[in-house]
């Protein structure tokens, strides 16, 4: 009799244990479901906020391009500072904007146009990136030949160049473009170029979208583009960044006040400081700030929702030519040399 009661007690205890485990599992799943629903709702809210900010940024570009109503060259010049706002600094929009969303707009006149580079400019760019003391003429000639073979319309390889018979031996194999570049990332596929530009944020430094512009506007230039220009080092780039916070570069004379004469001679052919573009990169992302070593809050975000748009007219919505939901954010300051 006692043995039977003991067996019943064991069964009851096991049943209670199993029920407790089941209740715990169900409660855990309920918590996970609630957490997933909350996170999903927050993601949707964040996406909606970013999409709204993107639309507002498009309108900001249209507002800046709207005519003043008075035809005057003096007024056109006065309007340029409004357009020079689109140099990648965080924007305060004319429309009420979400305080938790950062908006940055980059005019492509502040980037190096790979599609319009003259051969002499490309060679200067390569020599500067290699470092003048490492710019071996033989290597430069090989790089120029590889570029020419990639972009020309035939399959005949130049001496020291590369055509399909070289690229098809790589892992994975691929064929050369034999035509104009179709993306800035494509430059890394050209023989020898990945060794030189593999550490560059290509989207920040280069553009392919403006057939009319050849040079770069220092009022709008990205740090990545500035670091590639002949005649500039980090010290002179910092002088340029400091100057344009409160001033406009209206001509080469303004630049010459900051740059040594011998460096200015190298830089001058690259500049067009009144130049604007019809193409813009819009970046929007949730605000994320962290304190630096001195306790100053800094923007710590690394990626953004990005659109590249073309402004066709002040009264028509911009044409979207590229979307990237995970665009790397360009440099906001020169890297610390000690890091």
Question: What does this protein structure show overall?
Answer:
There is one protein chain. The chain has 339 residues and is an alpha+beta fold. The chain has a domain at 61-113 and 203-328. The protein has eleven helices and eight strands. The protein has helices at residues 2-65, 73-83, 119-130, 137-151, 164-167, 193-197, 202-205, 223-226, 234-246, 252-256, 261-267, and strands spanning 101-107, 112-113, 206-207, 279-286, 289-291, 297-299, 303-310, 319-328. The strands form three sheets. A four-stranded antiparallel beta sheet has the order 1-4-7-8, covered by helices on one side. The chain is globular and about 100 Å long.
Largest sheet: 4 strands, antiparallel
Element string (H = helix, E = strand): HHEEHHHHHEHHHHEEEEE
Global Rg: 28 Å
Order of strands, widest sheet: 1-4-7-8
Note the overall shape. Answer: globular
Range of helix content: 40-55%
How is the secondary structure organized here?
Elements: H1 2-65, H2 73-83, E1 101-107, E2 112-113, H3 119-130, H4 137-151, H5 164-167, H6 193-197, H7 202-205, E3 206-207, H8 223-226, H9 234-246, H10 252-256, H11 261-267, E4 279-286, E5 289-291, E6 297-299, E7 303-310, E8 319-328
Parallel strand pairs: 2-3
Antiparallel strand pairs: 1-4, 4-7, 5-6, 7-8
Keywords:
four-stranded antiparallel beta sheet, two-stranded parallel ribbon, globular
């Amino acid at each position: 009799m006692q043995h039977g009661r003991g067996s019943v007690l064991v069964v009851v205890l096991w049943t209670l244990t199993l029920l407790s485990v089941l209740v715990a599992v169900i409660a855990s799943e309920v918590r996970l479901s609630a957490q997933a629903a909350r996170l999903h709702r927050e993601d949707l809210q964040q996406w909606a906020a970013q999409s709204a900010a993107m639309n507002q940024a498009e309108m900001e570009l249209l507002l800046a391009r709207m005519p003043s109503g008075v035809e005057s060259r003096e007024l056109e010049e006065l309007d340029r500072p409004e357009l020079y706002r689109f140099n990648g600094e965080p924007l305060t929009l004319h429309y009420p904007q979400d305080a938790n969303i950062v908006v940055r707009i980059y005019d492509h006149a502040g980037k190096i146009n790979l599609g319009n580079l003259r051969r002499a400019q490309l060679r200067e760019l390569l020599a500067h990136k290699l470092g003048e003391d490492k710019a071996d003429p033989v290597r430069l000639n090989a790089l120029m030949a590889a570029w020419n073979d990639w972009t020309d319309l035939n399959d005949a390889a130049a001496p020291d160049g590369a055509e399909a018979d070289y690229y098809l031996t790589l892992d994975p194999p691929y064929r050369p473009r034999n035509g104009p570049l179709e993306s800035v990332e494509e430059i890394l596929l050209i023989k020898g170029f990945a060794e030189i530009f593999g550490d560059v944020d290509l989207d920040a430094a280069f553009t392919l979208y403006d057939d009319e512009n050849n040079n770069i506007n220092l009022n709008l230039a990205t740090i990545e583009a500035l670091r590639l220009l002949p005649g500039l080092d980090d010290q002179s780039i910092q002088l340029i960044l400091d100057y344009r916070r409160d001033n406009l570069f209206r001509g080469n004379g303004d630049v010459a006040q900051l740059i040594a004469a011998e460096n200015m001679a190298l830089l001058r052919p690259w500049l067009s400081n009144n130049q604007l573009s019809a193409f813009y990169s819009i970046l929007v992302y949730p605000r994320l700030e962290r304190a630096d070593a001195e306790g100053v809050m800094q923007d710590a975000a690394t990626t953004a929702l990005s659109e590249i748009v073309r402004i066709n007219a002040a009264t028509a919505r911009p044409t979207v030519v590229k979307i990237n939901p995970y665009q790397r954010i360009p440099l906001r300051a020169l890297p610390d040399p000690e890091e």
